[in-house]
């Protein structure tokens, strides 16, 4: 199959684009796919609704003007240096282009994450082993401090004392490791 | 291919085991989304990056054994036939997205099919563990251990504040999607489900029908999963889902008892009529098959029907999907042909139960 855009190179990327609920297939070579910055949905059937919903959620900033490929580029447009994804593109497809997008778009993310995750903006789950010791200790410390407050509020002073001791030994441990060895 | 041989290769090993609460919970699934630093996400990555990732996984994990799950085999989507890919989707081992739209997709599949690791789907890695019955905590533990093992070889994209960085902001944090498949015929029949689904949604969980179009539940099977991945620990996410599932189990059991009381012989009649259709039909559409299978499964759970294994619903719901029907037929089928094949396959499966029963009686 030949790329439908340049009609020269073989089409290696096959996409489905949903416009007003209408499914259109695209067969492009890699270069054209990237150059034209097509917005593609990568989902299988049962995720269409989620994808539309998500795009709706992300699009709350300002009504987006329909831009053609050759529209005047906006100099203020925020763009990820690593993958070239613009913030505008992100709000349209609802997915990041790379890890660095998170840093590039950081100031716009909290309201989005809050909407998607019931008000939460910070991770409180697993930490990869590789990231290692100090990070684990710090998380554990934060958890224990919260637990201590709860115990004090419930006037469970005996257990609170135990937790306070655990906190102290963790703080000692962190001090021993010099805290900064991330 | 004989039906028995087809059946034995088609049904995953884990599927023929019974898990806790398996009268109502068919399976528990944990999925962890992970990405590798230094590569762009699959939304934008180049074919070179995609190939590098596949090569990395092929070199590191293919043909290696992992615990009791057996050896991993790497399947490249580009090298599979459309029917083969369909079959993997129907078994829930890969997503439709990986099968249809990921030109550089691959999957590491364990021998017992309990573990599948999708590569280059929406994220670089999606670890998936499937367990029979209600075993969310067990599945989480298994997935998390596997996650640690993989992390020994690759560098995950992780942020101290945001957790695991995923291609879609709906997965960031734990990258965890926990889900259970439940058979809820009595809640549907008593129409309580219409009240329950919105309530569950309000708790931050998603309820979907499986295999149905949109959210329509085919065969009264529903999938319930977490929506929030950020701000809660993996254990809390799973515990919250587990609590809701247990409540649903209790409600379904109560509704079943109420139905037995109020309908009595009429319920039994409904069950046996459905059994009669399945055992004798010559043409059957997937929707009718699913409804009849649901009735028969309810009949087994209520003790009306004996000598048929309980797994029959899970097995036949999967085996009567288009991919499996075509694999069984050994080639492409038109929809009308599928309905004929579906009927034949269901009859064969029921005959197999009879043979098993007779062999059991002789012993
Ligand atoms: Zn081209
Ligand atoms: Zn980026």
Task: Explain how this protein is built.
- The complex is a heterodimer of chains A (182) and B (363).
- Chain A is mostly helical and 182 residues long.
- Chain A contains seven helices and two strands; from the N terminus they run ββααααααα.
- Chain A has a two-stranded antiparallel sheet with strand order 1-2.
- Chain A starts with 12 loop residues before the first strand and ends in a 6-residue tail after the last helix.
- By secondary structure, chain B is of the alpha+beta class.
- In chain B, strand 7 and strand 8 (163-164) form a beta hairpin.
- In chain B, helix 3 (82-90) crosses helix 12 and helix 9 (265-280) crosses helix 10.
- The two termini of chain B are 28 Å apart.
- The relative contact order of chain B is 0.13.
- Chains A and B meet through strand 1, helix 2 and helix 5 of A and helix 4, helix 5, strand 7 and strand 8 of B.
- The complex binds zinc ion (2 copies).
- Residues 3, 5-6, 9, 28-29, 31-32 of chain A line the site of one zinc ion.
Give the SSE layout:
The complex is a heterodimer of chains A (182) and B (363).
Chain A: E1 13-19, E2 22-28, H1 30-35, H2 48-58, H3 87-93, H4 99-104, H5 109-116, H6 133-153, H7 157-176
Antiparallel strand pairs in A: 1-2
Helix pairs in contact in A: 2-3, 6-7
Chain B: H1 3-10, E1 25-34, H2 47-61, E2 65-66, E3 70-76, H3 82-90, H4 96-101, E4 106-110, E5 115-119, E6 125-132, H5 136-151, E7 158-159, E8 163-164, E9 176-183, H6 185-189, H7 193-202, E10 205-209, E11 221-226, H8 234-263, H9 265-280, H10 286-301, H11 312-319, H12 322-329, H13 335-362
Bound molecules: zinc ion (ZN) (2 copies).
